[in-house]
Design goal:
The protein is mainly beta. Helix content is 11%, strand content 61%. Strands 1, 2, 3, 4, 5, 6, 7, 8, 9 and 10 form a 10-stranded antiparallel beta sheet that branches. The chain is globular. The two termini are 39 Å apart.
């Protein structure tokens, strides 16, 4: 039994010894973020929006609608892939997100739930992680969308 424990300990030490020193000096700093996103649908193609983000993640944003699913409870789910380039030129990567909406008319939808997950990017967002939620409205008739986002973004600092 002692030999097994010693072997596991030796493997752990060997693994730590092969890690670069920079891995030990990195810390994750989390902060609250918030702002608005306003886009126009069908600027790039029929299912892609293009617009601006204000607030903490200020920059340009696109959202491609990947799928639209009517739900049995009367809501409609939009699966979306986001892309954001900040004002400073860094990009933020997102996992595909699902917006659950309530139809207000044949073309207008209120956002009920819209969790969005950040999974990296470039520049200071290279190893970013975060979760945000949004409220807002989509008008497929005019092509306009307006959202208020809020959440937490964690950035890696250090070497």
């Amino acid at each position: 039994m002692k030999t097994q424990s010693f072997t596991k300990f030796a493997v752990l030490i060997a693994a730590l010894a092969t890690m670069p020193l920079s891995a030990f000096s990195q810390t994750r700093h989390c902060s609250s973020v918030g702002g608005t996103i306003s886009t126009d649908l069908a600027v790039v193609d029929q299912s892609t929006t293009l617009g601006t983000a204000t607030g903490d993640l200020k920059g340009a944003v696109t959202a491609a609608i990947l799928n639209v699913t009517p739900n049995s409870d009367g809501t409609v789910s939009f699966t979306v892939q986001h892309h954001l380039v900040t004002e400073s030129g860094d990009s933020i990567s997102f996992s595909p997100a699902t917006a659950v909406t309530m139809p207000l008319s044949q073309t207008r939808y209120a956002i009920i739930s819209y969790p969005v997950h950040i999974n990296g990017g470039t520049g200071k967002y290279a190893k970013a992680r975060g979760d945000m939620d949004s409220i807002g409205e989509v008008d497929l008739g005019s092509g306009q969308t307006v959202f208020r986002y809020s959440g937490t973004v964690c950035l890696v600092t250090g070497n």
